[in-house]
Amino acid sequence: MSDKPVENPAVEAAPSETAVEAPATAATTEAVPDVVETPAAAAAPAEEAKPVEESAAVPAAVAEEKPAETPAVAPTAAVEEAPVETATETSAITPIQALYTAAKEHGHPEVWGVTLADPATDVPSQIIFQKYLNANDGNLDKAKDQLLKTLAWRAKTKPLELLARAYNSEKFSGLGYVTSYTAEGTYDPAAPETKEVFTWNVYGNTKSIDQTFGDLQEFLNWRVALMELALQELLLATATKTITTDYDPYKIFQVHDYKSISFLRQSPHVKAASTETIKVFAQNYPELLKEKFFVNVPVIMGFVYAFMKLLVAAKTIKKFHPMSNGVNLAGEFSDSSIKGLGQRLPTEYGGKAGELKALGKETQIEAEPVAKVEEAVAVSTA
């Protein structure tokens, strides 16, 4: 990457996404086999055929007519009444099917806008369950635990309803955007590599620390809504291509812009928001981060990034790219499967497509009160 490592000083500081990544498990953990075998039941011994004279199926008169030296032979019917019991193999179940079973037992039907169904036939559901396995290095027990916690959280928090809500313009306008890019004019679900989704957190546009971060739950609601907006752009609900442990194109680029930030010494409100955001995203949005760029970060804060390397999993830290100048961001995508992606980025980040506020989608923002609009106009014309 182009710039030397520097700090990610504000709200979703590392290990934040892990704030879109689940906590990494030990690298030495072995993946659960694709098939979990259930031991077959032990075979029961076959019941011995009864002597003919003890069988009710043979009339006494017939038995008496037979010579004494003739061996008694049980009729076929008598043998069939005592069949030899053979062991039966229990149907094997894959880890993905095990997660589906756990999700059904929990009852909440949705994750990231995907209505969960049988992953054997439903690709979007397969993607969801595989991501939870990937996030936990194939450990089924850990993946199940994380999935169930996500389902409980979504049932309580209702993120899709948060996405439909409008947020205070004074607190959140201009702080978060989503953009997406495709290689062709029409996106082909069979080639998910040809679409890229970006979230942009522009905390330098914060008007008031106390207003934006003072109400922790309101901030979290807005931040979750922005993530759900990005997930809608990812089009998981209509995906047609499955993922594996090594192949997963359904991930998001994140850019955190700290230009003009005046609160490098974080207030208690900012620290609380950062801590809780990390916790919520790590638990409920695993394996969704492709790369994360911290731009316009003062070089003097580089020592913090170096310290961060000691705390964050190696596979996650490789996805973090601090940059002192945001204009250099466009140059980071020269090898993208989308030709000319860098040039299609906002001008603030080295692209040629126009300003971010004109290109990006925001969460729903409440209209400013008429009185405030008139006051702003009066000030601008004074």
TrEMBL record:
InterPro entries the record matches = CRAL-TRIO_dom, CRAL-TRIO_dom_sf, CRAL/TRIO_N_dom, CRAL/TRIO_N_dom_sf, Sfh5
Entry's localization field? Cytoplasm; Endoplasmic reticulum membrane; Microsome membrane
Matching entries from Pfam families are given as: CRAL_TRIO (PF00650), CRAL_TRIO_N (PF03765)
Indicate the transmembrane segments per the record.
293-314
Entry annotated with the keyword Nucleotide-binding: no
Record's compositionally biased regions (Low complexity): 9-46, 69-89
Required cofactor(s): heme b
Sorted keywords for this record are: Cytoplasm, Endoplasmic reticulum, Heme, Iron, Lipid transport, Membrane, Metal-binding, Microsome, Transmembrane, Transmembrane helix, Transport
Q: Check the record and name the SUPFAM superfamilies matching this protein.
A: CRAL/TRIO domain (SSF52087), CRAL/TRIO N-terminal domain (SSF46938)
Question: Main location per UniProt?
Answer: cytoplasm
Query: Does this entry carry the keyword Transmembrane helix?
Result: yes
Which parts of the sequence belong to the CRAL-TRIO domain? 217-357
Region annotation Disordered: where it falls in the sequence:
1-89
Tell me, in a sentence or two, what this protein's role is: Non-classical phosphatidylinositol (PtdIns) transfer protein (PITP), which exhibits PtdIns-binding/transfer activity in the absence of detectable PtdCho-binding/transfer activity. Regulates PtdIns(4,5)P2 homeostasis at the plasma membrane. Heme-binding protein that may play a role in organic oxidant-induced stress responses.
Q: Which named protein is this?
A: Phosphatidylinositol transfer protein SFH5
Its source organism is Sporothrix epigloea
